[in-house]
Write a structure and sequence with these properties.
Layout (H helix, E strand, L loop, with lengths): L1 E4 L6 E5 L4 H20 L1 H18 L1 H12 L3 H26 L2 E3 L8 E9 L2 E5 L7 H12 L3 E5 L5 H14 L6 E3 L4 H8 L5 E5 L2 H12 L5 E4 L4 E5 L5 H13 L9 E7 H15 L14 H16 L3 E4 L5 E2 L2 E2 L2 E4 L6 H4 L6 E7 L2 H8 L9 E3 L4 H7 L6 E2 L20 E2 L4 H6 L2 E9 L14 H15 L3
Parallel strand pairs: 5-6, 5-8, 6-7, 8-9, 10-11, 10-17, 11-16, 15-16, 17-18
Antiparallel strand pairs: 1-2, 3-4, 4-20, 9-19, 12-15, 13-14
Helix pairs in contact: 1-7, 2-4, 2-6, 3-4, 4-5, 9-10
The protein binds NADPH dihydro-nicotinamide-adenine-dinucleotide phosphate.
Length: 481
């Protein structure tokens, strides 16, 4: 049995049976059958059921938010906002799957004009989803909603820290789709995730740390199982000289401290240009200083993360950084008080590695160019933010990341129609939006001959005269400058 407990009180939130490798394989085999049935419903049949699930989730949002509080310690408001994001993505995926993935005819090409082209997106079959604990509703939903909308069945392995929320998602889905096990859940530790990779699934959607992503890729390599990897980040906010400094500070504090900083796209570093630096630091300290641990800044869910946060703060201070809020004493297990660090050198761990706590470093830079250079200086590239007016979008384009919010933080994660994913150590592939739907389907190209060939190129029966015509046609069509 896997017993899930509250990170601060230790109170049991629930317990679930642990799967072994054979049970995982059996779940994948059941899912393969279920996938055939699910696929046979077509886009409209699936949409109707997925919309019912969306409505159920929206009606019972307090219930799942409470469960998230019980087992991850997430403050209620944060859990509600998380669940709202999940509902948004499910709604978008269900509504748009047919338009994005449905069969279509493609334009005819002159050299093969007797053929019509057809494109359709076929589901993989069974998608294994491996999820983290920090956003136990929203992050798996990004993959689950895409995979289901595209016509796949899903076997989901939630984090060992949030199995009850994972089970709730599968149970509520079964309430609206009782016919077949289209969404199943398997519980356990990392070995269960590894077993899922080797269980015969046709695709793995992994969300978690970069270190575990590499293990997942190695496990998937044996059977060439394709993957989408949503890994960690070290996101930066750039505050330009024409930014609304107060708004930038408010967004930076929320982006850095929401969910106690345990957010893949959490803001961990700020780069403020010299003219606004002092005002920005003062506003951040003022706003972050008002936050209360407990109801606004929840506990750190994973005990070993507390050591990492403490090490990053200590390392920054040892290397010449200064705490203008919080600091060495901020880590009071299981809580970490908001911490703002300045003058932290670029080689400090808190600048280079994912901290995953309610901490923010603020660095003074000469201009946006230097901000970009420093912001782009880590191996990660997930999200980011820019505050400013004249050049904000130009700066946003040049941030090495998959997503950027301009004059906001984290906002791209809540938009159903935008893709979500990173570059570098933050992973590859996309969830959410049209790209997130296509991630869970294979494009299938079909050509259909409609008449005799005018320029028979692809046959041994072509004559020298026809080859000469092909050469002439090629030059006329493509040879001109
Ligand atoms: P982990 O990498 O520790 O775990 C992620 C999932 O993988 C868990 O379900 C875990 O199970 C499982 N797992 C562990 N070992 C293996 C293995 N060998 N093979 C297959 N699966 C395995 O991440 P966390 O749960 O700690 O989540 C935090 C991380 O997730 C952070 O780095 C964060 O940035 C990232 N993240 C990325 C997001 C994105 O969209 N880019 C969104 C949210 C988080 P178990 O829990 O039982 O160990």
């Amino acid at each position: 049995m896997l017993i899930s407990t509250h990170p601060a009180t230790g109170k049991e939130a629930g317990r679930v049976p642990v799967a072994d490798a054979a049970a995982v394989e059996a779940a994948t085999a059941r899912a393969r059958e279920a996938a055939r049935w699910w696929q046979s419903l077509g886009f409209d049949g699936r949409k109707e059921r997925l919309m019912r699930w969306r409505s159920l989730l929206a009606r019972r949002v307090e219930e799942v938010a409470e469960l998230t509080g019980l087992e991850a310690g997430k403050p209620h408001a944060d859990a509600v906002v998380e669940a709202a994001g999940a509902v948004e993505h499910l709604d978008w995926m269900a509504r748009h799957a047919k338009r994005v993935l449905g069969p279509r005819r493609t334009a005819t090409r002159l050299l093969l004009m007797e053929h019509t082209g057809h494109l359709e997106y076929q589901p993989y079959g069974v998608v294994g989803v491996i999820g983290p604990w920090n956003y136990p509703i929203l992050t798996p939903m990004g993959s689950i909603a895409g995979a289901l909308s595209a016509g796949n069945a899903v076997v989901f392995k939630p984090s060992e820290y949030t199995p009850i929320v994972g089970q709730w998602l599968a149970d509520t889905f079964a309430e609206v789709v009782p016919e077949q096990p289209v969404l199943q859940v398997v519980h356990g530790l990392g070995d269960v995730g590894a077993a899922l990779c080797r269980s015969g699934v046709n695709k793995i959607a992994f969300t978690g740390s970069t270190a575990t992503a590499k293990k997942v890729l190695a496990a998937c390599a044996d059977n060439l199982v394709p993957t989408v990897i949503e890994a960690g980040g070290k996101d930066a906010i750039i505050v330009d000289d024409d930014a609304d400094v107060d708004a930038a500070a408010e967004a930076a504090v929320w982006g850095a401290m929401t969910n106690a900083g345990q957010t893949c796209i959490g803001i961990e570093r700020a780069y403020a240009v010299a003219p606004v630096y002092d005002a920005f630091v003062a506003a951040v300290v003022e706003k972050a200083g008002k936050l209360r641990t407990g109801d606004q800044i929840g506990p750190i869910t994973m005990p070993r993360q507390l050591d990492i946060i403490r090490e990053h703060i200590d390392d920054a201070l040892a290397k010449g950084g200064r705490a203008v809020l919080g600091g060495a004493e901020a880590v009071q297990p299981p809580y970490v008080a908001p911490t703002v660090l300045v003058d932290v050198p670029a080689d400090a761990r808190g600048i280079r590695e994912e901290t995953f706590g309610p901490t923010l470093t603020i660095t003074k830079v000469a201009d946006a160019e230097e901000a970009l250079q420093q912001a782009n200086g880590t191996s990660y590239g997930l999200g980011g933010a820019v505050f400013g007016k004249r050049n904000a979008i130009r700066i946003a384009r040049r941030l090495r990341s998959g997503m950027v919010a301009v004059n906001g933080t984290l906002t791209f994660s809540g938009m159903g129609n935008l893709p979500f994913g990173g570059v570098g150590d933050s992973g590859f592939g996309r969830i959410h939006g049209e790209d997130g739907l296509r991630e869970f389907a294979r494009p299938k190209a079909i050509t259909v001959r409609r008449g005799p060939s005018l320029l028979p190129a692809m046959t041994f029966e072509r004559t020298p005269g026809q080859v000469a015509t092909i050469i002439r046609a090629l030059k006329i069509l493509y040879g001109r400058r």
